[in-house]
């Protein structure tokens, strides 16, 4: 199947742009096979003009109803391939992110890769699949949560390490409050 081959290529290729190009290329191949089957079905149903056929008169053995079913099955097949790829890559994003620390640059790169992959899927099958985007959102949310948690811990440690000096300015403060409130501080 194409997907395990894609996952191996993804692991081997380091550059995000190259990974996206490989994924798009694979989708174009799947789409090309889809288009060949679709054209063959159209030819078998007698829906192509004679000028498009490379050989003489084609055999017409599909009725219009059967041709419609073939086209519906082809659309479903293409959508299933896109969904399967999205789910596999979402699984990869989820499982590889468990114990790894990431930088903001890596999150941005992953975001671009996810968007480009989702765009390629939508262009190929005509609809969006949410699995990969959801896995990315979870991954990015975890990064933001850890980022803020680390910064909060650092600030807490800095404040705890700071020497605090107790100042007794309560009487002066009370004088100012009384003066502001009543106008006379006696």
UniProtKB/TrEMBL annotation:
InterPro entries: Vps54 (IPR039745)
Single GO cellular component term: cytosol
Highest taxon above the source species: Eukaryota
Molecular function per GO: syntaxin binding
BP-aspect Gene Ontology terms: Golgi to vacuole transport; protein transport; retrograde transport, endosome to Golgi
Protein transport as UniProt keyword: yes
Keywords: Coiled coil, Golgi apparatus, Protein transport, Transport
Claim: S-adenosyl-L-methionine is one of the keywords in the record: no
Cell location: Golgi apparatus, trans-Golgi network
Family membership: Belongs to the VPS54 family.
PANTHER family reported for this sequence: VACUOLAR PROTEIN SORTING 54, VACUOLAR PROTEIN SORTING-ASSOCIATED PROTEIN 54
Protein name (record): Uncharacterized protein
Organism: Aromia moschata
């Amino acid at each position: 199947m194409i997907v395990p081959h894609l996952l191996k290529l993804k692991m081997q290729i380091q550059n995000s742009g190259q990974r996206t190009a490989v994924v798009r290329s694979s989708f174009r191949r799947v789409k090309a096979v889809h288009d060949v089957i679709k054209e063959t079905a159209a030819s078998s149903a007698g829906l192509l003009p004679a000028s498009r056929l490379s050989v003489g008169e084609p055999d017409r053995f599909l009725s219009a109803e059967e041709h419609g079913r073939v086209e519906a099955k082809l659309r479903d097949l293409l959508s299933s391939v896109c969904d399967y790829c999205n789910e596999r890559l979402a699984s990869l994003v989820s499982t590889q992110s468990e114990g790894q620390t990431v930088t903001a640059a890596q999150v941005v790169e992953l975001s671009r890769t996810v968007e480009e992959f989702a765009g390629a899927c939508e262009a190929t099958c005509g609809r969006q699949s949410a699995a990969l985007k959801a896995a990315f959102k979870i991954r990015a949310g975890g990064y933001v949560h850890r980022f803020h948690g680390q910064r909060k811990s650092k600030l807490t440690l800095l404040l705890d390490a700071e020497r605090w000096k107790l100042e007794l300015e309560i009487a002066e403060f009370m004088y100012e409050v009384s003066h502001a409130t009543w106008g006379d501080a006696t």
